[in-house]
Amino acid sequence: TGVISSLQRQLEIQESQLRRIKSEKEMLQKKLRERENQLQDLSAKFCSLTEEQEDKEMMVTIEKENCNLRQVVAEQESKLAEQNQLISKLQETVGQLQAEVRTSRYQLHKQRRAQDVVQSQAETLQQRELQTRVALECVTSRFERYRSKIIQATFSTAGMKPPQAELTDEEVLEAMQ
Prior knowledge:
Layout: H1 2-48, H2 52-155, H3 169-176
InterPro entries: CC-FHA_domain
Keywords: Coiled coil
Organism: Pampusana beccarii (Western bronze ground-dove)
């Protein structure tokens, strides 16, 4: 149960990280789209300029912005690739942890069934032991009564001396013969 709880906590942590990374991925994709839109807007502005001076100044500005945006896009794509790799690893880890949880649950269920069988057998054996003890007490009681009657019958006959000490079964048999 402790192992399952630990594995479930690890699974929850991994899933939390996976959700956070997916959220970051979506945010990066959104920024990437915004940057692309800005790039398109700047390109549109460039086309609408009519004067040559403004065109030149705008061209320089746009080129700088384009360069900056390309760098940002490259960085965002790199981050996105890293996030995708991390997501893949986390999904693999989550899959492994889920398999371990399933295995642990199966083994725990198997152990519980075995424990139930052993407990049932132990209860049966206890009942049999109790029945055997009761039967033994009965037989012992009958044997003692029977032995007592044999001793009384043997030593109450004429010419027999009563015993001075406790008799063994062999002594009773010998006196009886």
